Amino acid sequence: MPIQLLDPKSDFVFKKIFGTAKHSNVLVSFLNDLLYEKHKECMGKIMEVTYVQTIQTPDSVSGKEMVLDIACTDSKGQQYVIEMQLSRFSGFERRALAYLTRVHSRQLKGGMDYDNIQPVFLLAIVNDELFKGHPYYRYDHKLVCDQTGGHHIKDIHLTFFDLSKFKKTKLSELATKEEQWMYFLKYAPGVDLESEDYKTLIKNSPIFREAFLALDETSWTNEERELRERAVINKIDTNAVIKYNRAEGKAEGKAERDRVVVANMHKKGLPKETIAEIAEITVEEVEEILATL
């Protein structure tokens, strides 16, 4: 019987593959394969990574807490933020920039010279359409001078991948490491690990053997399975509450429905950005509702 692989796009599984020391070599390959060639003028090849705190506390009492999916630094001090988003929401790109600039600014410690600040890179994968009207599945953003066209300030880099626009559907069609990673993220649950195409892939790119096998839940520890089960149950409970509250809210109007949904999600400890995405309102509207509770 073929092994049933889990979806690497799901939050818990994505963080298990790319966000744990056990598979840090997978993250190193992932970052090098997707970022290095494009950014090698200002990015050194990554040899190893150290995971860092993903909860970015606010800079003031009234500031905003930020929760990253995965954050790490390499041996040169270069900083990386990796985000996986199943569906795009309003302001997603600005949130990504806000996350990255906070990571960049927090490198500066007392007595530190500005020349020692290292570049920061955001790698965001979205399972939804980004930048409508454009056919590309990859979008790279950096600071460019209007007058010279030059890339003089090499500190801020944002790379977005839009899986909805990645169209190759067969392992045999993949021509680059970048395409292999896009295929892995989009189609991994349907891959036959006994197929010749898969065997060819792992022969040419051995790191994918570890990445694919990490999706086999039978290889996980009991603790890892229990954590995933809890994450799945929490998601089911959350969706059930949302569905109930939305149904109840219909009789009382959208404003009251939003208030009920936000209040319940806030009690569960969800970040404001997540609440906004679920409730289909803006983060500012979430904050306004929370201020009245």
Descriptive labels:
single chain, 293 residues, alpha/beta, 2 domains, six-stranded mixed β-sheet, two-stranded antiparallel sheet, 10 helices, globular
Short description:
The chain contains ten helices and eight strands.
Structure notes:
- This protein has 293 residues and is an alpha/beta fold.
- It has two domains: 11-220, no CATH class; 224-290.
- Helices cover 42% and strands 13% of the residues.
- The protein contains ten helices and eight strands.
- β4 (70-74) and β5 (79-85) form a beta hairpin.
The N- and C-terminal alpha carbons lie at a distance of 53 Å
Number of strands: 8
Q: Major beta sheet, specifics?
A: 6 strands, mixed
How much β-strand is present in the residues? 5-15%
The strands making up the biggest β-sheet line up spatially as 1-4-5-6-8-7
Approximately how much helix is present in the residues?
Answer: 40-55%
Rounded radius of gyration (Å): 21 Å
**Overall spatial form:** globular
Supply the helix-strand structural class.
Answer: alpha/beta
Oligomeric nature of the chains: single chain
Number of helices: 10
Spans of at least 5 consecutive residues whose pLDDT stays below 50 are: none
Q: N-to-C SSE series?
A: HHEEEEEHEEEHHHHHHH
- Mean pLDDT comes to 83
Structurally, how many domains make up the residues? 2
How would you summarize the topology of this molecule?
Elements lengths: L10 H8 L5 H16 L9 E3 L3 E2 L9 E2 L2 E5 L4 E7 L6 H14 L14 E7 L11 E5 L13 E7 L14 H11 L8 H9 L2 H7 L8 H29 L3 H14 L4 H8 L3 H8 L3
Parallel strand pairs: 5-6, 6-8
Antiparallel strand pairs: 1-4, 2-3, 4-5, 7-8
